[in-house]
Amino acid sequence: MTDVVDVVVLGLGPGGEEVAGRLAQAGLEVVGIEGKLLGGECPYWGCVPSKMMIRAGNLLAEARRVPGMAGASTVTPDWTPVARRIRDEATDNWNDQVAVDRFVSKGGRFVRGWGRLDGPRRVVVGTDAYEARRAVVVSVGAKAWAPPIPGLAELAGTYWTNRDAIEADALPGSLVVLGGGAIGVELGQMFARFGTEVSIVEGAERLLAPEEPESATLVTEVLRGEGLELHTSASITAVHHDGGRFTLELDGDAPVSGERLLVATGRRPDLAAINAASIGVNEHAHGMAVDDHLRVTEGVWAVGDVTGVGAFTHVSMYQANIALRDILGEDPAPAEYRALPRVTFTDPEVGSVGLSEAA
Q1: In terms of C-beta density within 10 A (0-12 exposed, 13-18 middle, 19 or more buried), how is residue 266 classed?
Q2: Mean local confidence (pLDDT), 262-268
Q3: How far is residue 88's CA from residue 80's CA, in Å, rounded to a whole number?
Q4: Is the dihedral of CA 15, 19, 22, 24 positive or negative?
Q5: 3-state class (DSSP) for residue 279
Q6: Closest Cα partner for 1 from 136, 122, 138?
Q7: Rounded CA separation 111/34 (Å)
Q8: Whether this model's pTM surpasses 0.90
Q9: Where residue 311 falls among pLDDT bands split at 50, 70, 90?
Q10: Which residues contact 226 (CB under 8 A, 6 or more apart)?
Q11: How far, in Å, CA of 338 to CA of 150, rounded?
Q12: Is the pLDDT confidence value at 1 over 80?
C-alpha cells in the first residue's frame, strides 16, 4: 500500500516532533514515523533523566560539605528513589503515549515502525509506503558508537551504553567508563558520589578534550579529589569479560577492571539502516550533509543528530524551525553555528559558546 501525504517525518526526536507537529498545525497532512519512543533520546535517556541523576549526586556532595562549614552531617546514599523518580516521573516507565497523544492532537498521523528511505520522496515501513508531495524530513538521531578495540564488539549487549546507565535499578560496586567526554565524565562523577568505584579511561591527553584546557584541568582535579581513578592518553589493547568483571588492557599501564563497563565514546547516525544511499547519501559518513536551509536533496530535509552538527537538543530545535519554515516557503534565515553553546553538567559545570582558543 502506498499512502500519499504532504509531509513524511522519519524519526520523531525533539527536532522531528517539532517539525511534524507544527507542519500539521499549519494544515498539512503529516505522517510521523518512529520505531522507538516519540520524543527521542532527550526525555527518555538524555537531558531529563540524566539531570535528575546528576542533581541527586550533587545533593549528596553538598551534604558532605556541611562538616567544618555549617555543623555536622551524615550522608547515606540510596539509589532507589532516584531510579523510581526516573521511571515514574520522567519517563512513564519508558512509555510515550502522552507524547503520541500530543502529536495526534495537533493533526499529525503517527506510525510506529522502523522506516527506510526509498528514493527522495518515499519512505517504507514494513509493507507500507508513504509518498510525500512536499517534503520528507529525516530526524532519526544517532546511536551509541563503540570504537574498534579488540574484544569489544564481541561484548555488545553486555556492556552499558548511556541508555543502560539511565535505566539502572541498582548501582554496581565498580564501574569502568570508556570515554572521558561529557557523558562519561558526568555519569562517572554521579555514580562515584553514590558510592561506586569509578575509573575513567580516555585516549586523548585530557578529559573533556573539546573544552578549554583550564576547564578540563579543574574538572580533573575535582574528580581525583572525589576518588575517581583517571587514565588519559590511554591506548587500550583489548577488552575482556570473565562473567563477573570487565577488564581493559592498557599499553604501558596496569589493566583497569570493574563490575560494569560504560562505553561513552560518542554517538553516530546509522545511515545504512535508513537506506540513505537511495537519495545519494554516503552511508559511511558521520552525518547527513545539509545546506544552510537543512536540505539534503530535492524534497528532503534533515534535522538533529543525523546531520552531524552538534548533538544537542537545542541544535535540533533550531534546525527544526529553519526546516519547517523552508518547507512552508517562508524563506528563513540560513543556519549558522558560530555561537553554538553547550554545557557539561559536571560539578563544577563547564559552559562554552562558540570556538575554543585552539579552534
Answers
A1: middle
A2: 96
A3: 12
A4: negative
A5: helix
A6: 122
A7: 7
A8: yes
A9: confident
A10: 61, 189, 192, 193
A11: 38
A12: no
User: How is residue 85 written as a grid cell?
Assistant: 523518580
Question: In terms of Cα–Cα distance, which of 90, 175, 64, 137 is closest to 294?
Answer: 137
Which position has the grid cell 572521558? 180
Q: Give 196: exposed, middle or buried? Use CB within 10 Å, 0-12, 13-18, 19+.
A: buried
CB 176 within 8 A of CB 260: yes
CB atoms near residue 239 (< 10 Å): 23
How many CB atoms are closer than 10 A to CB 237? 13
Beta strand 197-201 pairing with 229-231: parallel
| Residue 102 burial class via C-beta count within 10 angstroms: exposed 0-12, middle 13-18, buried 19 and up | middle
Amino acid at 94: W
57 within 8 A of 77, measured Cβ to Cβ:
no
User: What confidence category does residue 354 fall into, taking pLDDT thresholds of 50, 70 and 90?
Assistant: confident
Give tens-digit pLDDT for 313-341. 999 999 999 999 999 999 999 999 999 99
What is the C-alpha separation between 109 and 103, in angstroms, rounded?
A: 8
The pLDDT, as a whole number, for residue 319 is: 97
CA distance linking residue 237 with residue 252, whole number of Å: 10
Q: What is the DSSP string of 77-113?
A: --SHHHHHHIIIIISTTT--HHHHHHHHHTT-EEEES
| Cα distance between residue 234 and residue 274, in whole Å | 35
